Amino acid sequence: IQYIMQHECGNFTFVSKPKISVKDTLITVKLTETGLNKYVKQNVDYLYQFLTDINIPDITVTAGLFQLTLIDVHMKDLSVPIIDLKFIENTSQFNMMNLKISFQFHFKIQQQTYPYVSDEGDGTLSVAVHILGEVQPQFIESCPDRVQMQTVSSQLILDEIRLKMNGNMQFLYDTLSPILTSAIKQVFNARMNQVLYEQLIIGFNFALTDYRQVVQSADSTYGADNRNVNVKITPDFLVSQFTCQVHKVDFATKTVQNWVETTAQPRPEVVSNYDIQYFIQKDVYQIALNCFNEFTEEFKDVKFEVMKFVRMGLMTKAQTKDFSAVLLFQIKIDFREYKKADNDSNFNLAFNKVLECVGDCAKVETLGYEVEKHSNRAAVAIAQSNSMDARECINIYVNDNYFHVGCQQFV
Asked: I need a labelling partner for 130 at 20 to 30 A (CA). Which of 17, 106, 345, 403 fits?
């Protein structure tokens, strides 16, 4: 687990803010139990990757007068069932029933007394296991912005085991099969259960850590800081906190130079049943709008001041040498596919209307649409949101400082 975490850490250098804290939170993501179960279901490929890489030592057992050694044991097939997760305060329980694994092996069998009959061949070992576990989130010192799951308790129950050997003495293998299977079951319970469970946890952790520290915006060198500030589990939600500040990024050297100091504001609780819920603090848009001047020729001198959220969206003041205006932008969630079953959630600005204007007001609408056009080039974004559709999302006003976006995931 440590290796996985270190492998995923240290990709980007954040020059002005190498360490972040809860104070720096600008977006909070909450997953319900249903949402997390869907998330895990969509990421079972990680379990395949790590279970198929299990390093299994040779297995030697004795059955009567015969000694059997299984050599080059490796996974042939894997069937991952539905994994059910439940929240408890600070921990999550998971229940994985009927996990079926088929191993291939080469074997050697040797009679221990005269006439010392021996044979070798190939075979399969099929098992079905039931795994119960309880885990809690933690950060490690070498990787302070990536969460991993630490085991609180675990139990692996071997429900079924079947042995099939193919060789010259087939009649003997069929006769000895019950004794050999019983002996291998004892070895499996003594040595393999812990190895298998640890690989499952590594797979879960890799799914949690295999996301980008910086989410690159469309057609630009800007990116959203996706370092994880904090993760906690309540009886109702898995809660993750991010900064999501948008800055210019040197992707060649993986370096982020800039940072804007912000303070997380108190947020009233909003109760909804959406699988995944985003709570967005207005300051994150101030930082994103500071990047706008690079994308426009007509409004190079514009300065924005994010004012507050209202029920229809975000009120923003815009000032140029020609006008002073207040514009209303709506929050428009846009999912950009990064890879299969892994979308970036972009919280772009869509121009709604001009609320106030003094000066050359004919240009203000043009500015509004320019902001909308280029919003995805300095996008407030969260990585690894899985398969969702904007039509399954809803915007909810919280207060002057916060807006809430709730979405349903595809099963």
From this structure: 106
